[in-house]
Amino acid sequence: MEANRLKHLYVEELKDLYSAETQLVKALPKMAKAATSEDLQTGFEEHLEQTKGHVLRLEEIFKALGESPKGKKCKGMEGLIKEGAEMIEEDIAPEEKDAGLISAAQRVEHYEMAGYGCVRTYAKLLGEVAAESLLQQTLDEEKTTDEKLTELAGNINIEAMDAGEEEAEERASHGRRKAARA
């Protein structure tokens, strides 16, 4: 592949990530508000601040390239955010909603990790040393966020499972009482 073709792809992929990150800046406060677990709320709030930093890094890269970050809408992130919004609107138990929010957030993180891994490699091939370093830093932060979400999921998924078992036992107990009265 010619270097100018790779550079074109690099810039287009950076624009896609910029759009993804700016969409996420708008979505994360909604996810934090919907979460019932304090740890999950805090995690979303911390990642919001981190995401704002990702946007600034991308702007720094665009400035160095003499390019504008605008002009492209990341449809992949748009879809992932819509799925997360559907989870927020679900009328389900708080533990189940938190587990679903973690699932939605991890899909976002994996999408971002794939994108940042690619553009970091392009930057390396193109000799964009400063950009490569900034992109690696963001990639590392995305991986750390994914690991934190996995850790939170351990407890929250168990809480969702236990809550479901308690509800099932309550329904069964209610059914037995009703049958005994009949």
How would you describe what is shown here?
- 88% of the residues lie in helices and 0% in strands.
- The N and C termini lie far apart (79 Å).
- The longest helix has 53 residues, at 129-181.
- It has one domain (3-181): Ferritin.
- It has 182 residues and is an all-alpha fold.
Question: How is the CATH topology named?
Answer: Ferritin
Structural class of the helices, strands and pairings?
mainly alpha
The second-level CATH architecture is Up-down Bundle
CATH class category: Mainly Alpha
In the predicted model, the low-confidence regions spanning at least 5 consecutive residues are none
Fraction of residues in H or I helices: over 70%
Say which CATH homologous superfamily is assigned.
Ferritin, core subunit, four-helix bundle
Order of secondary-structure elements? HHHHH
Number of strands: 0
Question: How would you summarize the topology of this molecule?
Answer:
Elements: H1 3-34, H2 38-65, H3 75-89, H4 94-125, H5 129-181
